[in-house]
Amino acid sequence: MTAGTVDIVGGQRPAGQHQHTETDAELLLAASVLLADAALAARRTGAELTAAAGSWRVGLQALRRPAWAFGTALAAVRALTNPSGLGIAANGGMVGETVRSLGAVARRRPAAVAMAVDAFALRIEAAAREHPNLAAPLAKRLTDAVVAGRRIEVVRAARDLVELLGVTRTLTTISPVIMELLALGGLLDENPTNDSFAWVTLAGGVPTTDPLFGLPAGLIRHLNPGAGRAERTEPDAMLSRVLARSANDIVRYIDDISALGNHGLALLRRVACADGTERYVVLLPGTSFGRLSNSTPQDLVGAFDALLRTDTTYSRSAKQMLLRAGVPEGAELMIVGHSLGGITAMNLASDLDFVSRYRLTHVVTVGSPIDTKRPADPTTRVISLVNQHDVIPGLDGRGPASANDIPESWVELSWLDETYDYPLSHAPQAYADTLRGGDVPHRARVNELITRYDGEIVANQPYLLRDK
User: Fold this and answer.
1) Alpha carbon distance 467, 377 (integer Å)
2) Which one of 83, 111, 281, 313 is most buried, by most CB atoms within 10 A?
3) Does this model's pTM top 0.90?
4) What angle do CA 356, 358, 359 make, to 5 degrees?
5) What does the pLDDT read at residue 382?
6) 407 preceded by a cis bond (ω within 30 of 0)
């Protein structure tokens, strides 16, 4: 990864591993980009030929010049169906989508799909160079079966891998390429409705459909309704003890978030800063995995919604919290969020009305998939902390196998630590413990970037956030 500030600590290469291995991975990624571009271009060509063949202009010319129209239509059909060329490349429009769907059911693979599969395969191979567990025999058997579209073998390989490693370690092993594997599954099955997930992933975007059934993100919005609500509440004894020793320090912030839990609490902090300015810090915890949906914004449905959209019950509840607290317009604000809390922080940063009302100076995310989101105010400093064993940050499509990079102005600090297994690798405590230790020097780096908020903590006010 070249853009932004990306420090990888704790993942040093073993003795005897030469520099050419890294170069090989970079070459594989570069080749995957070329293949992806070619696949997308072939798909666009198929759509343009399909549109041209069905154009009313062609029909009008057919009335005037039937021989020319017949020849043109025949040439277009040959181009769209020739196995040595584009293959069954029709797509777009009612006719094109019908033909594409029939081709998918018949497992006729057009050139665009073949090149896309090869591009994903190169990404997986590149990731295996940096994550040797992916190159282990059983893991490679699984990824090879997915690339080949052999679903029975995929099930067998996954079963054997789970028997050997267990569910959590299996998930952690394949996490660097989870988006590529999901995209390949959608691209190579007989279901034409989920292909969009694969093409968006190939192009480096955030899919707006699910990978299994192709259901649109709009359906999730209906599962996550509510105007958002925030109510003042009092901290319990444990939270009070943690907040009493807090400070403008990234480890302390993560400790605070861990103490808040993930059952609807958020924290608004008022700080009398050393330069005489009163500033505010918002702490947003992550997702509760107990139920798919609950009465708070911190549920699984809310997590999927926040990943795909910016206006969610969590972001609306956070805005209600600031309004209830009477935070003045123009006040300087920093938001620190873990997981879903980090996604919500970036959703607020991308909300033009929000950043027009408040001066959002910093967004600090911990284990959050935020790389496809952009702040509306270009002066907002974005700091992203990523444990590379953590599955969640890669859900934005930019994992180790992705060729897409973050903006130059962002600061991304990543590392490999001992918390290999998910979900332990995603826990805020794991991030805090790593930053607290001496092996990863990122604590001082982050604290240096947020010195504006040094000062005396005047107030810590927890709020209970609700969907409605």
Assistant:
1) 27
2) 313
3) no
4) 95
5) 97
6) no
